[in-house]
Amino acid sequence: MGTKPAAEPAEPARFDNILSRLRALVERLESGNLPLEDGLRCFEEGMQLCRQGAAVLDKAEKRVEVLLAKSDGSSSTQPLDEPGGDEDRR
Q1: Would the pTM of this model clear 0.85, i.e. be above it?
Q2: How far apart are CA 4 and CA 70, in angstroms?
Q3: Neighbours of 54 (CB within 10 A)
Q4: ∠ CA(46), CA(57), CA(17), 5° rounding?
Q5: For residue 75, what are the β-bridge partners?
């Protein structure tokens, strides 16, 4: 008899999947037709998804900072909504 292979770690959730699930949960909660226990379960799942989404965004931000790192070891970051922010990317 062989042994079962070790379980592989779950693949990280994609941000768009997390966002879609959050939207569905919000729609259910906003309908107002949920029993209290179901509403609490939806809220709990939503909070877990928020934490997962924040972790995905943090990881993406760190990747961008690495990509923007300058050769002298310093890094350059800018808010995404800053107009004319292309001057520093040389």
Answers
A1: no
A2: 47
A3: 11
A4: 50
A5: 69
Q: Give tens-digit pLDDT for 39-67.
A: 999 999 999 999 999 999 999 998 888 88
d(CA 45, CA 21): 9
Task: Classify each residue of 3-15 as buried b or exposed e, where b means 16 or more C-beta atoms within 10 Å of its C-beta.
Answer: eeeeeeeeeeeee
Place of tokens 């941000």: 15
Cβ-contact 23, 50 below 8 angstroms = no
Instruction: Give the DSSP per-residue string, the chain.
Output: -PPPPPPPPPPPPPHHHHHHHHHHHHHHHHH--S-HHHHHHHHHHHHHHHHHHHHHHHHHHHHHHHHTB-TTS-B----TT-TTTTTT--
